[in-house]
UniProtKB/TrEMBL annotation:
The lineage of its organism: Eukaryota, Fungi, Dikarya, Ascomycota, Pezizomycotina. SUPFAM superfamilies: F-box domain (SSF81383), RNI-like (SSF52047), TPR-like (SSF48452). This is Uu.00g105250.m01.CDS01. InterPro entries: F-box-like_dom_sf, LRR_dom_sf, TPR-like_helical_dom_sf. It comes from the Eukaryota.
């Protein structure tokens, strides 16, 4: 040391030496020794501000940056031990603190590095080093948006002092680079209402998978108040899952909704291994459950009575393969009697039923029930309707299949039924026709022998049936066919021979009134529909309102009731100028005839001929704005509700 050197000069030399030693250790990877040297340099500064491991609680730098008011925060008076009101622009002090933050970065102590970066801004707010260092630390902490805000605040504050400062271009360059690398995270930027709508549109499966995107997304989806309604509707759709639904996952998903799940559905119980125990977990956890839907398209599964508290459901839907025992139905109906609006059970368990009835005769009062669908899954079982009719006075849709219906009181009936489906395997007494077909009926589907039973005939009543076929016996039915004058949709599926009053009874009332919109006759009763050559033409069989038509049986009548199936079909379609949809099943109709029908205005043709349609015909039809579908018409009024695609089953 040269003689006469002042104390201040010696201090500056010691600081400079400590800083150089720290840089050397840092370059050699000796981070501990480097940190000690940088700390000595900081504490030896003449400003008197010792190194701190905490930030100033008076100014809260990070919150101020996020709010965009850092300049105001730096001007606040410090009353804590940080003494951050004082500034120091000594290069050695700033460099030492900057290098110390870099050491913490190398040691992956990012929280401590952030503290040093904030303290550097506090002691030298018009120096770029603090903003550059803090922004880098924030980027390492995956806080890219906050890093950009740090650059912006630094540029603004420094430019207030000197808009030509040499560090400004560097800060602009770094901010631009970070902006290019950052990805737009809509959950943090979009309004909560828009984000909620996006996830609702994506569906429950996509929402579950989004939990794994990031910690931010999981916190946003599970802790945000508005987002909790996403978990109130839990629908396990028909996709190929990687494994079964775990009980822990069910409990977790329910917790995300604060146990206020209102809708729970499983499209493929066998794929998800959803069994009785898991259903018990759902019932126990979801006390506010309103809608329950379970489906098993291929394999059987048993649902047995569960000794727990049942929820008060609004809608219960058990598809084919989901066995519903009598005890289970009794329990769920009793619990939900005041709230139940839909009861759809398509596979009633008929085994081990002592009295032969799969349903109880005593039903609770269900004022709110609007939809009733019952089926025995291919077997015929007994069902006494009288008590059910009395206790469900407001039913509007009825769907039965495979049930032998009994009436203890022939005067009982549903007065508000608008949709009635009586499918295969349904048998009813003659007196029941008036009880089932109400004056308010708008949609009617009949299949199999029930068509003749409602007319007052059956195969067992052979003499009367034969006389009716030959036109020597009139129809004597309890059905008031005048009630059919308001029908909008009618489907009759009966393959046997019919008498002369068949079309007059079922089709004529709604055809003449002009209310019919969709008509399906499979097979078409050609014996009731003579042409010009063989008999008097039926002039009333025409409508300007009919938009969808389904007919089969043309080919088998060629040479008997009709001469040419294709010519007859074209003439028949011409009776309905507003026709847009035509279902001809597996009839042998040529491509040329299909093209002629399309030219007549039909927009969709369902033709299941067992072969692919000619590509040229399909392309030509598309150019005309029409479609030829090589498959079944799932939108037909007669389709089984549980055999249709999900998009056609009522939206849930």
């Amino acid at each position: 040391m040269a003689p006469g050197s002042s104390v201040e000069d010696r201090r500056r030399e010691r600081i400079a030496q400590s800083l150089e030693n720290g840089k050397l250790h840092y370059s050699l990877g000796e981070l501990g020794k480097a940190a000690a040297c940088f700390k000595r340099a900081i504490n030896a500064c003449a400003c008197g501000m010792q190194l701190r491991d905490t930030v100033c609680i008076c100014k809260n730098i990070l919150d101020a940056i996020e709010d965009g008011n850092l300049e105001d925060a730096l001007k606040k008076k410090c009353i804590c031990s940080a003494k951050s009101t004082r500034h120091c622009y000594d290069p050695h002090h700033m460099n030492a603190l900057n290098y110390l933050a870099a050491v913490c970065e190398k040691q992956e102590k990012l929280d401590q590095a952030s503290i040093h970066g904030q303290n550097l801004i506090t002691i030298a707010p018009y120096e770029a080093k603090g903003y550059l260092r803090l922004a880098k630390v924030l980027r390492l902490q995956t806080e890219a948006s906050l890093a950009i805000a740090t650059y912006q605040e630094g540029i603004y504050i420094i430019s207030q002092k000197d808009k030509y400062d040499g560090s400004l271009p560097t800060m602009h360059q770094m901010m631009t680079r970070v902006k290019k690398s950052i990805r737009f995270d809509f959950v943090q930027r979009l309004p909560i209402e828009i984000s909620t709508a996006i996830f609702e549109l994506a569906g429950f499966r996509a929402t579950c998978r989004c939990l794994r995107v990031s910690t931010t997304w999981k916190k946003y989806l599970t802790n945000t108040g508005e987002m909790k309604r996403l978990w109130q509707v839990q629908a396990f759709r028909a996709w190929k899952p990687k494994g079964p639904i775990k009980t822990q996952a069910l409990v977790k998903y329910v917790a995300y909704a604060d146990k206020h799940v209102t809708h729970f559905s499983v499209e493929t119980c066998t794929e998800f291994k959803f069994d009785m125990q898991k259903l018990a977990v759902v019932f126990q956890a979801c006390r506010t459950l309103e809608n329950l839907k379970l489906r098993v398209p291929c394999y059987p599964s048993n649902i047995l009575p569960i000794s727990i508290r049942y929820p008060q459901l609004r809608r219960l839907y058990l598809g084919l393969g989901v066995k519903a025992t009598r005890a289970f139905v009794e329990a769920i109906v009793q619990a939900s009697a005041e709230t139940l609006e839909e009861l759809s059970i398509f596979d009633i368990d008929s085994n081990n039923v002592a009295d032969g009835e799969v349903m109880p005769r005593e039903w609770p009062r269900m004022e709110n029930l609007k939809t009733l669908r019952l089926s025995a899954g291919g077997r015929q079982c007994q069902l006494t309707l009288s008590g059910l009719m009395v206790n469900t006075p407001n039913v509007e849709e009825v769907w039965f299949e495979g049930l032998a219906l009994f009436f203890l009181n022939e005067h009982t009936g549903w007065k508000n039924v608008k949709k009635l489906y009586l499918g295969e395997g349904v048998s009813i007494p003659v007196i029941a026709g008036g009880a089932l077909i109400s004056p308010s009926i708008r949609e009617l589907h009949l299949a199999g022998g029930v068509v003749l039973q409602l007319c007052g005939f059956s195969r067992a009543n052979h003499n009367a049936y034969t006389a009716w076929l030959h036109g020597t016996h009139p129809i004597h039915s309890s059905v008031n066919f005048a009630n059919l004058a308001q029908l909008e949709k009618l489907s009759l599926r009966y393959l046997g021979p019919v008498g002369p009053g068949y079309l007059d009874s079922w089709v004529k009332p709604s055809m003449e009134s002009g209310t019919i919109r969709e008509l399906e006759l499979k097979n078409f009763p050609f014996s009731n529909f003579p042409d010009d050559q063989d008999g008097e033409e039926i002039t009333w069989f025409t409508s300007n309102k009919l938009t969808h038509l389904g007919i089969t049986g043309l080919t088998q009548e060629v040479g008997f009731a009709i001469n040419s199936a294709e010519d007859w079909l074209v003439d028949f379609v011409a009776r309905f100028p507003s026709l847009k949809g035509l279902d001809i099943g597996q009839e042998l109709i040529s491509d040329a005839t299909l093209g002629t029908i399309i030219k007549m205005g039909v927009r969709t043709i369902f033709h299941r001929h067992g072969r692919f349609q000619d590509d040229e015909l399909v392309a030509w039809a598309a150019r005309q704005g029409s479609t030829i579908v090589d498959g079944p018409n799932f939108w037909s009024v007669s389709q089984h509700p549980d055999r249709c695609p999900p998009s056609t089953r009522g939206g849930w």
